[in-house]
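Notes from hallway chat w/ T.B., transcribed later so I don't forget. T.B. wanted the structure written out for a chain they're using in a teaching module, and asked if we could keep both sequence and structure tokens in one place. Agreed to drop them here.
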Amino acid sequence: MEFKMESILKSKINPAYLVGTSMIWFGTTITAHAAVIINEVDYDQAGSDTAEFIELYNSDLNSVTLDGYTLQLVNGSSGSVYDSFDLSGLSIDANSYLVLCDDTQAVANCNIDVASGGWIQNGGSEGDAIALLFGDTIVDSIAYEEIGTNLGPYGEGSSFTEADSNSITMSIARLPNGLDTNINSSDFGSACITPGSANISGTGNCSISVNPVPVPAAIWLFGSGMVGLIGMSIRKQSSLAG
């Protein structure tokens, strides 16, 4: 099943994260396909999988438009795509992130709610894969848990066979953050959950909020600071005059 991002923009985007974190909608952007990578994935949680997410990272010095990009989820037992997300109409700021999740209330810094719980398969004996494509070309991919005979195009170098956990809070992520040598067994490892921010080795939930200060509040804070500085200046001048 394929989802067009235009059809979910109005109802699924969490507007709190549209400014200053990872997405821009206006101004000049530069397309640089190789700069965007799959950076962190959490597909398995304790009990029901209701906080799954995939994080994309733009390692470029310029913002990147995602027109023509598609995120595909691949079934390891058949090699077929079981879910697909058209990212056209979106973009990622320089050195920033785009987080797709199944619940914006359960995943910190999630930009787009794309599905209900359990949308990412849990691997298994033949593994599963996630691929980022530009047109028909795979620009980045990760196969996890196992590399079955159907997942050859998604392995990227030596096989990465580590797994997420349904008992420990963790994700699989690039360590150090953004590392991409095209050898997934070297690039990915167990990580503390950090959607929308730099990856951290270990386990647990290390999520931090990257919400920007709302514009009216920012203006109020700036005005308050100016009033304070003026008041200090007046008191200083009065003291010197005395």
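Follow-up for T.B.: The first strand starts at residue 2 and ends at 4. Might be a good example for the class.
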